[in-house]
Design brief:
CATH superfamily of one domain in chain B: PtsI, HPr-binding domain
Strand order of the largest sheet of chain B: 1-8-7-3-4-5-6-2
Largest sheet of chain B: 8 strands, mixed
Number of domains of chain A: 1
Number of strands of chain A: 4
CATH class of chain A: Alpha Beta
Number of helices of chain A: 3
CATH topology of one domain in chain B: Enzyme I, Chain A, domain 2
Number of helices of chain B: 23
Largest sheet of chain A: 4 strands, antiparallel
CATH architecture of one domain in chain B: Orthogonal Bundle
Mean pLDDT of chain A: 84
Shape of chain A: globular
CATH topology of chain A: Histidine-containing Protein, Chain: A
Oligomer: heterodimer
């Protein structure tokens, strides 16, 4: 099992598009991926779960990964958070 | 037993069909399963999921075909939820661990999710909640075999009965059902669902309390959208009576459309172009049926208001405008940039748009656009891109000064350059115009030469600001009229200045379909009038019956008068001489000023839905 801490850096937080990207990425891996925020916890492969974390910009999130491809999964998710979900300038609220 | 319910008419016409209760509560009941049945129950749950997916995909594809991909996105969100572990796994686990039926497991998951949603004060998430609820209800009803109005045979007429209805739901339902009427608890004549049902020609009545308790599913229901009456289980006599009423209006509408074929041209050959004011893409077909020569005003505010918690993307704008110009081709389509602020402020803007003591005179429309340029850039870029597909023209509302025009043109130039850099396909130079609705601008029209190509005169605001009268003020109705000589002089000056420098002119306020005002506008030489599609036939018919020379004389006399009352009297008297019934001539009735108040007055446009299909 691996565990990392990431911070939400993109402007709109874990909102629609970011949440969808996170779920998309998490679903590529076999590992069980859990997000923890304060006392909330959710499955990273569930869009609903991710949305319900309601994590605005600046939130600290712990990511717990366990499974055969946990190394790759951790890296992929770390990259996603650090790059601000690769939000481009298409975002109208930029 | 026959029952008569009284409400407020929000969309005219008479319709009859079987009641389809939309909020019909799905009631899940807890059942204890034996251990052996658990596997079977999970299988049943997955079957219902698959069935729900199939239904949603069908609706989505249908919608995408009929209305474009943008509308289908709502259903994509629901489809994803059917795969979401927060629902699927949670339900499965509950069935397995608690030995309960799938319907009840879904109910428990729904309640749990509801609590979580409520704990979060994020309006974006509140919107997602309705998706979650709808999708779970769908799976539940598939499990119970109660999905989708089993009372209806295919093609059978339906009357929707519900507490409230979102415009998108109405559009979706009209694809599935032959909707002949709508009965609602909530909705005002100016609500979006009212505008949409009028433009789709579906009779609708609102403000009937607890309507869901008063009608049962499958009952025969008659909706009278002229007088705001709903008859549950009507007697054969009532049905015949209403059939007569329906025919009467249908007949007049047909006469009106036939009587007004061809261009609107006065008896002495003076042409006036009639265009439509619309708010939804769905209104295009009706605009064409009624003979609109183009869209003189497309209001874009709804694009913003339907997603109050975020801004519409450039693609969402583009999709709508492209469809508009394609549907109306080769006719022109004038798209007005959002007139937001005033009474319409999306909640997402509250940060930079605090409540104002006097919003009608506050930070709105172009003022807001120039202050928060990034908000309008997506809209302008989408307009330029859509202009590559047809005759799209850009209209800027609420301009008070020439400085604002210059600033707006700078902003447009920046958008152009951005599009150039990105290599997008677009038309760089569609016609640009401004709304003349603030008195200051009306007197500066000639200075727009070389800056813009047309002006559109918004008479509603122009009257409101010239006479300092709130147009919604019940007690001041007598002031809010288009006959005041000072106002008429301003209008004449604006039109003459525009003509002198070669700008095209459109009148797009209520005055354009106020029959007594039409001779004045014709006399001013206003080349284009734009109005709700339903008014076009009557105005066209009227113009075909008058002479430009007479109209000119009426205008000259009006400009010499002291009081609006005298002008109004003169006009009504003149009309009386030409039409024995005056403005109550059946073919003009659609345009009687009071009829603009759809809540109380009959207009013939409820009948077109059926008529257009044949």
């Amino acid at each position: 099992m691996k565990e990392i801490e990431v911070r939400v850096v993109n402007l709109r937080g874990l909102h629609a598009r970011a949440a969808a990207r996170l779920v998309q990425t998490a679903s590529r891996f076999q590992s069980q991926i859990t997000l923890l925020r304060d006392n909330l916890q959710s499955d990273a492969k569930s869009i609903l779960g991710v949305l319900l974390l309601a994590a605005p910009r600046g939130t600290l999130i712990r990511v717990r990964v366990s499974g055969p491809d946990e190394d790759q999964a951790v890296e992929a998710i770390r990259h996603l958070f650090e790059s601000g979900f690769e939000e481009t300038d298409e975002d109208p609220a930029r | 037993m026959t029952r008569i319910l009284r409400g407020v008419a929000i969309s005219p016409g008479v319709g009859r069909g079987k009641a389809v209760l939309l909020a019909a509560q799905v009631v899940a009941v807890p059942l204890k399963l034996s251990k052996e049945d658990v596997q079977e129950e999970i299988r049943r749950f997955h079957q219902a999921l698959a069935q729900s997916k199939k239904q949603l995909k069908e609706i989505r594809d249908h919608l995408a075909r009929m209305l474009g991909k943008g509308h289908a996105l709502i259903l994509d969100a629901q489809l994803h939820l059917l795969d979401d572990p927060a629902i699927v796994r949670a339900v499965r686990e509950r069935i397995a661990s608690q030995h309960i039926n799938a319907e009840w497991a879904l109910e428990l998951v729904l309640r749990e999710l509801h609590q979580k949603f409520q704990a979060i004060s994020d309006t974006y998430l509140q919107e997602r909640w309705s998706d979650v609820r709808d999708v779970i209800r769908r799976v539940q009803s598939n499990l119970m075999g109660t999905r989708h109005e089993p009372v209806l045979e295919p093609g059978e007429a339906a009357v929707l009965v519900t507490d409230e209805l979102a415009p998108s739901d109405l559009i979706e339902l009209t694809r599935q059902l032959q909707v002949r009427g709508i009965v609602l608890t909530q909705a005002s004549p100016t609500s979006h669902v009212a505008i949409l049902s009028r433009s789709m020609g579906i009779p609708a009545v609102a403000s009937i309390d607890n309507v869901l308790d008063q009608v049962s599913s499958g009952q025969d229901v008659l909706v009278d959208g002229y007088d705001g009456i709903v008859i549950v289980a009507p007697t054969p006599l009532q049905i015949r009576e209403y059939e007569g009423k329906r025919r009467y209006f249908k007949h007049h509408l047909r006469l009106l459309i036939e009587a007004s074929r061809g261009p609107a041209r006065t008896l002495d050959g003076y042409p006036v172009s009639l265009m439509a004011n619309i708010e939804f893409v769905e209104e295009c077909s009706r605009a064409i049926t009624y003979g609109a020569e183009g869209i003189g005003l497309f209001r874009s505010e709804y694009l913003y208001l339907k997603t109050p918690n975020r801004l519409p993307t450039e693609e969402e704008h583009y999709e709508v405008y492209r469809r508009l110009v394609e549907l109306m081709a080769p006719r022109p389509v004038v798209v007005r940039t959002a007139d937001l602020g005033a009474d319409k402020v999306p909640s997402v803007w509250r940060d930079f748009h605090p409540r104002e003591p006097n919003p009608a005179l506050g930070l709105r429309a172009v003022r807001l656009a120039l202050k928060k340029q990034e908000i309008w850039e997506a809209q302008l870029a989408a307009m330029l891109r859509a202009a590559a597909h047809g005759d799209l023209r850009i209209l800027v509302p609420f301009v008070a000064t020439v400085e604002e025009v210059l600033e707006f043109l700078d902003m447009l130039e920046e958008v152009r350059q951005r599009l150039r850099r990105s290599g997008a396909t677009f038309r760089p130079d569609p016609p640009v115009g401004i709304m003349v609705e603030i008195p200051s601008m009306a007197r500066l029209v000639r200075h727009l030469e070389g800056l813009v190509q047309f002006i559109s005169i918004g008479t509603n605001d122009l009257i409101q600001f010239m006479l300092a009268v709130d147009r919604d003020h019940e007690g001041l109705r007598y002031l809010y009229k288009p006959y005041n000589p000072a106002f008429l002089k301003t209008l004449v000056e604006a039109i003459e200045q525009a003509r002198a420098v070669g700008l095209d002119v459109t009148i797009c306020g209520e005055m354009a379909w106020d029959i007594p005002s039409v001779p004045l506008l014709v006399g001013m030489g206003c080349p284009t009038l734009s109005m709700g599609p339903q008014w076009i036939p009557a105005v066209r018919f009227f113009i075909q019956e008058i002479r430009y020379a007479d109209a000119r004389k009426l205008l000259e006399r009006a400009l010499e008068m002291r009081m609006g009352m005298e002008v109004e009297e003169m006009l009504l008297e003149w009309i009386q001489r030409h039409f024995p019934e005056g403005i109550y001539h059946p073919l003009l009735r659609a345009s009687v000023p009071e009829a603009a108040d759809v809540a109380s007055a009959p207009t013939p446009d409820g009948e077109t839905y059926e008529w257009e299909r044949h």
